[in-house]
Amino acid sequence: MASFLTYTTLMALFSIFSFTISIVSSQQLPQELPAMRTEKLSHLHFYFHDTLGGKNATAVQIAGPKNFRFGMTVMVDSPLTEGPERSSKLVGRAQGLYAVAAQQEVALLMVMNFAFMVGKFNGSSISVVGRNPILHAIREMPVLGGSGVFRYGRGYALARTVWVDARTGSGIVEYNVSVLHF
Asked: What are phi and psi of 136, to 5 degrees?
């Protein structure tokens, strides 16, 4: 009889605990579940201005050898603009890092957030994490997530170098990005 009461008491406590957990968990869910909303495809076009070193640097080497050799790591807070000219309208910032991750060619590991500051994407960002073989004419990198408008985002970014200063490593890169989001 004692074991039956112990078993019953334990089952009652377990039931109360489980019910409490389910209530707490359900209160932490977002108001709108993605399944209840329509998925959208957004196309973004902008220019990334990377100024490595100098008086107005937007990218700073933080580790490794110089001259884009294996291990070189750079921290970035660079402008994103509507056009290729630096004076073009600012639409956001590229914030993150890249590192030379290949020994046989110049290929970067990109870990970058593109944070937008104007228009309907103001306050939203996308995260690009992937391989960027910078000497290829067109490079494709995955969009692995986002925030704000781009919550639950996924897609791809195509990068094309518009201009590069071989002496400093500074450059301008055109991005065409396709993002699926809710």
From this structure: -75, 150
Which residues on adjacent β-strands are paired with residue 43? 178
pLDDT at 7 over 90: no
Q: With 70 as the cut, is the pLDDT of residue 155 above it?
A: yes
Neighbour count for residue 58 (Cβ, 10 Å): 20
Largest CA distance in the chain: 86
At residue 30 the predicted structure's pLDDT band, cuts being 50, 70 and 90, is low
| More confident of the two residues 9 and 43 | 43
The average pLDDT across 6-32 equals: 49
Pairwise CA distance, residues 90 & 44, whole Å: 14
What DSSP string runs through the chain?
-HHHHHHHHHHHHHHHHHHHHHHHHHHTS-SS-GGGS--EEEEEEEEEEE-BSSTT-SEEEEES-SSS-TT-EEEEEEEEESSSSTTSPEEEEEEEEEEE--SSS-EEEEEEEEEE-SGGGTT-EEEEEEEEETTSSSEEEEEEEEEGGGTT-EEEEEEEEEEE-TTT--EEEEEEEEEEE-
